[in-house]
Specification:
The protein has 395 residues and is an alpha+beta fold. It folds into two domains: 30-231, Jelly Rolls, CATH 2.60.120; 264-393, 60s Ribosomal Protein L30, Chain: A (2-Layer Sandwich). Helix content is 14%, strand content 27%. It contains four helices and 20 strands. Strands 1, 3, 4, 6, 11, 13, 14 and 15 form an eight-stranded antiparallel sheet that branches.
């Protein structure tokens, strides 16, 4: 009788039942994509063209398909994985490129998933546009990537995730949390989009490579509001993990000397006396700030930008440089990119408002010109700034 009981218990175990009456732990799904590294013949996108093998073009009928890079429009960056990758652009005519793929099994409402893409920005991406009458235009501005779930090709039923602005010009892996709430979806859409909030459309690009499998994860192990983690595609561990790595210096070795003339600090630049402004003066602009790691113009800062516009309108002989600066938190490359994009955003706003482009230059200085110690939060806040430098005053 005892042997019969043991045999009965073993038979239940083989059928997937616990001997204590508990259901077996659910197996978490792993959804593999077709052609996840966007391998195809390098080519420029064209009207009526196709997306990379395994993907479907979701652009407008009068717009070109995504580019298969490298080798098109000045983009020469090697692939992150394999031989080729996809280039998606946004355009100043308010159109943007996207691709979709049918999933072999759906991502289900209420479940949590993790996905990753390698993303980068090409610092050179030059192409003719219809808005410019066929003239070559730069598409080097940074954009975001939006991930949609749907139940048909190009169906955007639910926005599942929006990445931070892809300002990096080296490949970085972006870990993307997905949690459908409105329904279950059998299609996924990858879409380039303008940075938001958007004051006006612009030309920009994002490079996409090395999509991972979409892996279901235990929701109980995740935070309520998961945040994407930007990670390097390749991680090399030190030989001895017990050795503490040295902390990088706070100030770079080649910190330029401070300017000879003390900068003018003002809350209202339009009140600056033009008779007292001279070449080399630096105006530190207060009430002009950005969210961490972002360079979009905040609505509440437009009054400050209007003050700069009024100053330049009243003094039409003044040529300025918009200078972007960061504190020492980011890496050198990231700080340079971020400060340049912040300065560029201000310059573009002024030009769009009506200031001639030959009177407004911009430059990102990264973390090379601190005005306060980076050892305190207050000092770091002061170093993260935008300044106006007077390049010339004629007439």
């Amino acid at each position: 009788m005892k042997n019969l009981q043991i045999a009965y218990i073993l038979s239940l175990s083989c059928l997937g039942f616990s001997v204590y009456g508990q259901a077996p732990k659910q197996k978490l799904a792993v959804i593999n994509l077709s052609n996840p590294s966007f391998e195809d013949t390098p080519r420029k996108g064209e009207k009526g063209g196709s997306a990379p093998n395994g993907w479907f073009d979701c652009g407008g009928p009068n717009e070109t398909s995504p580019d298969i890079q490298p080798g098109c429009f000045g983009v020469v960056k090697p692939a992150s994985n394999g031989a080729t990758y996809m280039g998606l652009v946004v355009r100043d005519n308010e159109t943007y490129e996207s691709v979709a793929q049918r999933l072999p099994q759906p991502i289900e409402a209420g479940n949590c998933y993790e996905w990753s893409l390698d993303l980068s920005r090409a610092d050179e991406y030059t192409s003719p546009t219809t808005q410019s009458g066929g003239k070559e235009m730069s598409f080097s501005s940074a954009v975001q990537v939006r991930i949609w779930g749907g139940n048909g090709f190009c169906d955007r039923a639910e926005l599942l995730y929006t990445t931070p602005y892809v300002v990096n010009t080296r490949w970085q892996g972006y870990l993307i949390p997905l949690k459908p709430k409105k329904g279950s979806y059998t299609f996924i859409v990858v879409e380039a989009f303008f940075k938001t909030p958007m004051l006006f459309p612009y030309n920009g690009n994002v490079l996409v490579d090395n999509a991972s499998a979409i892996k279901q994860v235990d929701c109980s192990e995740k935070k309520e509001e998961p945040v994407a983690i930007v990670k390097p595609p390749v991680k090399v561990k030190p030989k001895d993990s017990t050795i503490k790595q040295p902390t990088p210096p706070v100030v770079t070795k080649t910190t330029p000397p401070p300017p000879k003339v003390e900068p003018v600090v003002t809350k209202n630049i339009s009140d600056v006396d033009p008779a007292k402004v001279k070449k080399g003066d630096v105006l530190q602009i207060q009430n002009l700030y950005f969210d961490a790691n972002k360079f979009d113009i905040k609505y509440e800062c437009e009054n400050t930008l209007n003050d700069i516009y009024k100053f330049l309108s009243k003094n039409n002989k003044v040529v300025i440089e918009i200078g972007g600066h960061t504190n020492n938190r980011p890496s050198d490359t990231y700080a340079n990119d971020l400060s340049t994009n912040r300065a560029k955003a201000v310059a573009e706003w002024l030009v769009k408002k009506g200031i001639p482009s030959n009177r407004v230059q911009y430059k990102g200085y990264g973390k090379t010109m601190p005005i306060a110690p980076n050892t305190t939060e207050e000092g770091k806040k002061k170093n993260q700034r935008v300044e106006i430098k007077i390049l010339s005053v004629t007439g």
